[in-house]
Design brief:
Blueprint: E1 9-13, H1 18-29, E2 33-38, H2 41-50, E3 60-63, H3 69-82, E4 88-91, H4 106-134, E5 137-142, H5 155-175, E6 180-187, H6 193-206, H7 210-219, H8 229-240, E7 251-254
Parallel strand pairs: 1-2, 1-4, 2-3, 4-5, 5-6, 6-7
Helix pairs in contact: 1-8, 3-4, 4-5, 6-7
The structure holds NADP nicotinamide-adenine-dinucleotide phosphate.
NADP nicotinamide-adenine-dinucleotide phosphate binds next to α1 and α6.
Length: about 260
């Protein structure tokens, strides 16, 4: 099976921690040159130092805040003017706030739509010509199992994940003929800073301890534990590989079997 990414350049968004960071490491292990993308420059530099370089790679970083939509296009275009190669794009950012959907403001929907879907659109438009020239492209969106089975208390997230799924399927249909695949990876409960924060909030609002909240969640996961970011990254890395050339327009949960739909 060909998993070799030597000579490929991967933009990995939201890569200062969690699933994005684990993905950047995994892709670097397979030989890719990594462009880390996030807001926190200090953390970007730290992760940059940690990335594997055994295959002679050059890794870089790009400072972007996806909540400032009008800054994304000039930033990515300036970067590509200097370093024009792009073969892999991992669309990933922080998760939306929780709360009852009936209480969510219209602005919250617009902000989240911009941060997730519009950012992915702007980044994809910027990198697609490089992918077409190479006859190789991999676009992977990190969404949520809420895309298949809406999660209670995450109404804004559920809504935007659905939009992202439709965006990705449309892109997969249009770009497949250029050797560019577009797929979604849907994390379930994954041991990152995001899950820690969400569980602390659940505990605070129910007078349970964080450990009790975690045990309740784990009860419903067939493998009996949370997923690690490295396990999610392994699936993402496979989808990025030459071996996955025929996997296009799919949404793969990495959730220990929790999602109950087929
Ligand atoms: N962990 C889970 O259990 C779980 C479950 C289902 C779905 N998900 C989804 O999977 C995705 C990744 O989750 P995670 O747990 O890895 O998240 P995380 O640990 O919170 O990491 C989020 C990453 O995104 C970056 N980021 C956040 N806001 C940004 C912005 N406005 N502009 C640019 N970068 C931004 C952060 O870096 P900076 O702060 O440096 O910018 C960080 O590197 C999210 O959409 C999340 O909702 C996670």
């Amino acid at each position: 099976m060909n998993l070799d990414l030597t000579g490929k350049t991967a933009f990995v968004c939201g890569s200062t921690q969690g699933i994005g960071k684990a993905t950047a490491i995994e892709l670097a292990l397979l030989g890719a040159n990594i462009i880390l993308v996030a807001r926190n420059e200090e953390k970007l530099k730290e992760v940059l130092d940690e990335l594997p370089r055994k295959k002679g790679q050059k890794h870089r970083y790009l400072l972007v805040d996806f909540s400032k939509t009008n800054q994304i296009k000039p930033k990515i275009e300036n970067f590509l003017a200097k370093y024009p190669e792009a073969h892999i794009l991992i669309n990933n950012t922080g998760g939306p706030l929780g709360g009852a959907v009936i209480e969510a403001s219209p602005e919250q929907f617009v902000q989240t739509f911009n941060e997730h879907v519009i950012s992915a659109q702007i980044l994809t438009q910027a990198v697609v010509s490089s992918m077409k020239n190479a006859g190789f492209g991999r676009i992977i969106n990190i969404t949520s199992v809420g895309m298949k089975q809406p999660i209670v208390g995450l109404g804004v997230s559920n809504t935007i994940r659905g939009a992202m799924g439709s965006w990705a399927k449309s892109m997969a249909n249009e770009l497949g003929k250029f050797g560019i695949t577009t797929n979604n990876v849907l994390p379930g409960y994954t041991t990152t800073g995001r899950l820690k924060k969400v569980n602390e909030m659940r505990a605070a609002s129910t007078s349970k301890t964080v450990a009790e909240v975690e045990q309740e969640l784990i009860k419903d996961i067939p493998i009996g534990r949370f997923t690690t970011p490295q396990e999610t990254a392994a699936v993402i890395a496979f989808l990025c590989s030459p071996a996955a050339a025929s996997v296009n327009g799919v949404s793969i949960p990495v959730d220990g079997g929790k999602t109950s739909s087929l």
